[in-house]
Amino acid sequence: MPVREHASRHDRIAELPLVTESATVVEREAMDRDRTEEVRRAVDHWFEREGLADRYESVTDYDDWGTLVEELRADGYSGFARRCATLLERFERPHPMLVRVALEPDDTFEYLAGQYVGLRYCGESRAYSLASSPTRDRVEICVRRVPGGDLSPRLCRDLAVGDEVTMRGPRGELVLDEPSDRDLVFMATGTGVAPLKGMIDYVFDTGADEVDGERRDVWLFLGSAWEDDLPYREAFRAYGRERENFHFVPCLSRESYLSEWAGETDYVQHAFVKHVDESAVSAPLGRELERWLDEAPASGVEARIDPGSAEVYACGINVMVNSLVDAAESVGVPGRYIEAEGFG
């Protein structure tokens, strides 16, 4: 199935209907953490573990980590050099990189869970998916800082409570189908989860997770490099504690470098396939996906997905979303029950 494009170009945003010239920022909160000290401890730990602590200058006092990485490569420690390069990248990144922003429009604003709006601040415009549900009082977005970006660094660094932004929209067709007896599977990476967050809130706020007295399983597969790069992670974990039919599966590719992370580390589409009921898959998947269908999940979730009885919603960068859609179709989710939106 084709993946719809999320409008992000400035000229296309200007075409959206004006909602308000003065939506007020009522809350702004960083969702990631400053982990520089954790990185220092982790690098020292890995040097000790590899038996290299005495061979190289103390990393905590090292002024040029880039040179250190090159020295490791030159000395034949290419795998360890990659790990150090990853930790160096994390060490040097600015904070915050991920923020949530709650807005209060000066007029009534109607939208559907999953849609997006265009925001204008300090003369720059960008499209942002709404992370809120129309059942809630506030309109909310989440912003990932893009290095060199025109707007996201300002929203992460400069935006303050009381500031006003121009808001246009809403727009977007990534919206929920009418409630049915089908289970719900949401898949995203990073801030691609924003529209899905609004949809999940809406499902639980309206009781749409129960149809004709039967509970629907609600799944969320969410990928990022680091644990603190998962937007709204505590809200999703709270749903997991409070609702037996909600299954949150974080997929963290790099978190084990800094912590004792023992959950999923694979791509979102692969984690999804690992949680599919193998007995419900009839068509051959090919070597790539067959491997993941046979692999036991690391999430600790015992429930499994019947692809023939599921509807899937996916959002994120185009390449990732296309892979998610391909995986869902391959295991047997009917195309008419897959909704996807990509950007970038």
From TrEMBL:
GO molecular function annotation: oxidoreductase activity
FAD-binding FR-type domain ranges (all copies): 80-177
Source domain of life: Archaea
SUPFAM superfamilies: Ferredoxin reductase-like, C-terminal NADP-linked domain (SSF52343), Riboflavin synthase domain-like (SSF63380)
A Pfam family of this chain: FAD_binding_6
Protein name in UniProt: Oxidoreductase
Origin species: Halosimplex rubrum
Lineage of the species this protein comes from: Archaea, Methanobacteriati, Methanobacteriota, Stenosarchaea group, Halobacteria
